[in-house]
Structure formats: C-alpha cells, structure tokens
Amino acid sequence: MTFTKNTAAVDGSLRDKLAKKGVVLTSLDFLYNWGRRSSIWPLQFGLACCAIEMIAAACARYDIARFGAELFRASPRQADLMIVSGTVTKKMAPLVVRLYNQMAEPKYVLAMGACAISGGPFIDGYNVLRGIDRYIPVDVLLPGCPPRPEALIHGLMELQKKIASQEIQTAPWYQKGLKREFPIPELGPNGLIPKFNPEVWQPPKTNARKEHYGQPILIGKKQKAPDLEAVAVAPSVPPSGAAS
Amino acid sequence: MEMIAKKNNLEGAQMLEINFGPQHPSTHGVFRMNVFLEGEKICALKPVMGYLHRNHELIAENLTYAATMAYTDRLDYFNSMANNFGYALAAEKLAGIEVPERAAYIRVIMGELARIVNHVMLIGFLLNDLGAFFTPTLYAFREREKILNLFEEVSGSRMMGNYFRFGGVKRDLTDGNLAAIQRIVSRFPAFLDEFEALLTKNEILCMRCQNVGVLPAALAVNAGITGPVLRASGVNYDIRKVDGYGLYDRFRFQIPVGQKGDVYDRYYVRILEMRESLKILEQALEQIPQGEILNKKTLPVLKMPRNFKPAVGEAYGRIESPKGELGYYLVSDGTPQPWRYHVRAPSLINLTVLEDMCLGQKVADAIIILGSIDIVLGETDR
Amino acid sequence: MKLPIETVQKELEARMPDVKLRKVRDSLLIENALDLRRVAAFLKESPEFRLDYLSSVTGADYLAYLESVYHFYSVEKKQGPVVLRVRVPKTEPKIPSLAPVYRSAELQEREAYDMFGIIFEGHPDLRRLFMWESFEGYPLRKDYEQEDTEILEAADIAWLDAHRIAVPNEMKEKARELQAAGKRAVAQRPEKPRPA
Is ipTM over 0.95? Predict the structure, then answer.
C-alpha cells in the first residue's frame, strides 16, 4: 500500500542507496498525514449501547491506544474525531450538530453502529433520526449492532487510510474562508425542522425499503381493542421453576 | 428560576443555573441535569430525560412476542441477559408456559453472571466519577471481558445475547461452557479481594462517599426505589427472596443490607452482592441436572412466531435486575402482537429521589450520587 | 406472597361502601376515577395490607377509552401484587394523581401524560418527560400519525431559505402542494401490524 503520491519522482534503487547513507526521502504530505493519522483523539461522546463497545475498545484487551487514539477528550475543541456511537434521537440531533460545529478543523466523523448510519433497529420510531448523515458529513460508516471492538479498530484504520490520502494543497481547512459548520436543526411540533439538510443528504431516488415493504414505516394499525372481561379464565399460571 | 426560588424558600439568593448537558463525561449516557447553585451548594436539581427515547414500546406493540426479545437486550445494555429473563418471565405468565429444570438453572446462571458484570462495571465507573481516572475501570473491564467471552460462546454475541426463549433458553451449555463458568467462579473472589483491598478502606473513597447523598428508608420505599439503592438504605427487600421466581428458593444466599444509605453503603452493598452471586453460581453449577432446555410447546413458535397467540389477558412479570425491579407489563388481545407492552424501568424510578439526595451537597458530589444510583439511559428512556 | 384480589375487594366493600368496584381478571376496576386516591390511601394505611410500594403506573389506549393500571406491593409484609385500574374517556382524560400519596408516581405519571395525554390532577409538575415541550400529539395512542421524514414541508423550506441553503425544485414543489391541500406529510402505515 503506497501512502505517497510522489514515489515516482525518485526511483527505488536510488532511494535505497540514499537510505544506506542515512538520508531518508519523503514527501511533506506523507509526514503531515503520518502525524495526523497516528494520533487521532476521539471526542468522548457515547450515546447508547455502542458506547460500551467503544469503551471496551479503549480498555486493556483491545487497546485502541496502540493506534494513538487513547485520549478521549471531553471538550470538542480538543478532539479530532467524533465517534457517533448509538442511536441519535430527534431530541439529541441538534446537540450532535452543535458539537460538530464546535470541533476545530481538521475534523472527522465515524458513524458507529447501525443506528448512527440509518436508524438501525429503531428506524420505525417517531423520535429516532434515520442516520446522522442527514445533517453532518460522515467519513466512515461502521455497521454492526453493536460492532465489536475489533470492528471499531478496523473502522479507525480505514479512517487512517483516508487521512493518508489527503493532500495539503487541496485540504478543505486551508481554503480561504471555509468553515465547515452546519446549521443546527430545531425541534418542531412533529419532529425536526428541517427534516434533513439537502446540501448534505438527499433521499435516494429508489428507496429499497419502500419498494420492498410498500410503505416507509412498518407500524401497523389494529382495529379492535381486547376486552379483558369477556372470557372468565382462571388466574394466570405463576412461573414455577421445576416442570417438564 | 423565580419559581424554584419560591419553592425552596430561597428568595433573594443569587443562584446560578448550570446545565450538566447530555454530552458530559460522567453522566452515564445522554442524561441532562439542570442544577441551580448558590456558590458551590446545590439548591435545586431538575433532571431532563428523553435524549435516548427510542420508542421501544411502540415497536414492541408492532412485533410478535418472540421478535421483541431481541429488542429487550438493548434496554439495559450493561447486562442484557437480565432483561431477557424478565421478558421471558412475563410472557410465560401470560401464556402459561412452564420452564424445564435445566433451562431454569441455566437462566439463573446467566442472570447472576450478568449481575456480576453490571456491579463490577458500575464500581469502575463510580471510581471514574470520583476522579481515579480510568484505572479501576480498566481492572473492572478486564474481568468483564472474561465473562463476555463466555456469553459469546454461549449465545453468539458479547453483549446483545438474545439468548432466552419462552419456556427455556436457545442453546444448551456444553461441558466446556460449564468448565469455563467454574473457572470464572473460582478466580473471581481473588480479583474481588484485590479490588476491595485497594478500595474499601481507601481514605479518599471513605471521605468522599460517607455521609454523602443519604436516602432515608421511608422515602425510599414511598418513592418506589428498588435494588441495591433500597437495600443500602436499610430495607430488606429482594425480589429473588420475596417472589421466589426462577429457582432462587433452592439456593442459600444472603441479602446484604446497608445502614445509612449513603454512597459508600451503595458501593459496599454491591461488592457484597457480587460475593453472594458467586455463592449462587457455585451452588447452581453443582446442582444443574441434565435435561431439555426448551419447553416442547415453544418449538413451533421458534419456526413460526406468528403462532404464538396467547389468550386475551394481561401479565406483569418482574425480576430483581442488578439495578432494581425490572417489570414487564403485557396485555394480549389474541393476535400475534401484544396490545400493550410496558417496561417498568428501575433506572427511571430511582431518579425520583435524585433531587432529594443532592440538596445541600456540592456539585462534585452530585456526580457521584448519580453514579451510585446506577442508571442506564437505554432503560430510563426506553 | 400472593394476595388474592377477592380479599382486597371484600375489605374495600366493607370499609368504603360508596366506592363502586368491579373485578376484572386479577385486578379491581374502580368505576369512578375520582375515588382512586381515597382507595390508594386506604390501602396504604390499612394494617392488614400495608401496600406502601407503588411499583408501576401504566397507561394504555383501548380505542374507546384510556386506562391507567397501578401495581401495588407491600414491602413491610412482603405481599402483593394488588392491581387497580381506572378508565377515562378520551374526550376528558382526567385522573386524580397519586403523586401526593406515593412519590414513585411522579415520573411515571409524567410519562403516561407524555405518551397518552392522560391528565393527572394534583400532580406537582405535570409536563412532558421524554418528548420536548413543543411536541404536539400523544405518540403511543393508536391513532397517532408519524411524520414522513423524507418529504420536506413548508416550514422546512422556510427554515432552509432563511439559512440560505439550496433546495432542489421538486422538493419545493411538493411542499407547496402539501401546504395548498392543508395536509401534513404523514408517513403511510400498513393497515395491519407486521406478520412476523
């Protein structure tokens, strides 16, 4: 896997000869990215069950410190990576966007778990946001419910590859006047206003879920209520331990 | 602000409102507290919930009974096996299904292992709140990993096991699994001794936790507090002994009860409960018989969950989960989906007295009081 | 220790003859919702039952009426459960609150109000628990309509324009159509619940 773009400028044999003499050639991009990807400091931001696997990844067995990401910073100004771990509800979404805005460049987002990617198992709810990528740009999507700590480390390594492929000349945070801040949604009478940010995400033209099921949510309607007094039955059987 | 001042007879005081926002290192999830301070002392505290409200009850009213089992794992995500246990109990009460003996023993074993996982993690997090940044947590998670290994061998997943079924469990325990549990049980007391040696008589822990966040017994019972928080206040009420569900009446174990009801008592009650759980596990491992693990009536349900149509009725099944009384209220209308499904969450109800315990304390104490109540937001907000 | 509901019913009929009760399965239905607090206070103080622990307050929607179910236990005598229920019509869902008698009802009644719209009179602080204050509607009622999260409405377009965010024209058209028809963007629901 080559990390630099300028390897063609100096060919391999000359590079080896120089290395033997104690001269190492690299590119500025490579050095810059090596420093950044080897010391990503995540933001301490656990929402739900995935947060426990994130903490387990930071503990002694899976040890995310090997990858330089051991220091979970509490303040968004000091963090590079926001790991959105867990279900993002509509009540929580404005705060997630606000935290993203407060992070200093260069910043990355890793959506951990099925809930952060698309709503996950709770997609049919009235309070669940179908994926945090509706409001902020996401760099790495990590499926799982919850993803194992090894999967989180794999996602981190993918992010490291992505960082390694960025160049200083085209880096967004060095462009003049660019500030990657997104407007914070508000809480309306039925949900969030707006429902999504069209510049960040738009609903897909063919929605596989709608085509398969015929409707966007699966909460059905029941027409008849039960009448608890209708049938006279003996009191319910208490659970007994030993039986066969 | 003026309303709070009038309510607490603090007119004329200069109060500062601080928001312990949903993103905070020590709020154990997305929990928000509005704290009104006079200097460093707390005058009022208003909790705000709902940041993890995932409409679990709405989804469960739309799924078959068997499908909801996978969602109950995600309620109290520290110890998923206990949630499964409570739900299986409620559904079995509703439909009148009985559990074979070996399955009942396996359930007790899983429940007690989940209790150990929960308590040891909680003590790790409590020490984190106290300022011992992460070292006790690392020790606790090391032990947790050993038990999670076992959960993975048995149910296929570290955390969300989805292991219980109505009338039994999904997969049998092999001799290898039983040997692994025996290893855990025989090595855990040594770890607990090491943990206690560092913590129980620790001067900092004692000074910061004793006489902080005292909860009187009468208020605890009236406010519906259950679990280690209630027992630390001196009330001897443990659903394992009172209801005798599962097979708990076959095991000899004691209920640790505290005296003062402060944070230190809650911490120590949990350490003692872990030791009692180990005793139960040893006895269960000795007594477990051979046999089937699933009531034959449930086998067709596993193939076709639509066939599970309990008769019209209601049931309330409760267990002693590590956090308190976890109850499931089910109303059936004769169709494969329940008409009403409600979870009685101990974390939500234990928060009723948060304000009472924190009044007059300092801000830093509010954090450890919250930590000692042991809440998990998946359960509080459902 | 189980407490048969017939015992409780007999005692209540003897001590409070004006309270109309009906036995529904293993629970007692209090016909007049206003009697609830009296009955609960009596059960709490009575030396025979001493039901000092209110375990669970549940709301339920039965299409024609709303119901509130209470599970009582006794910590002192280690007995229970005793189940009481109260029914109110949807047009006037008012039930006396048990919060002055049992503090465990405080948060649970707020949840029942949030999800079903049952108004508990006498509750010290009845506001929404999980949803935000400006949320409209009672989500767990059987006739609640969720919003369709993929269709922008007029309020969304106005907000996006105010923040100078580009919106594709088809979305603006759809929002205008909805506003002209005076309808909300409601998610379609299947007629029956999921089969499996």
Answer: no
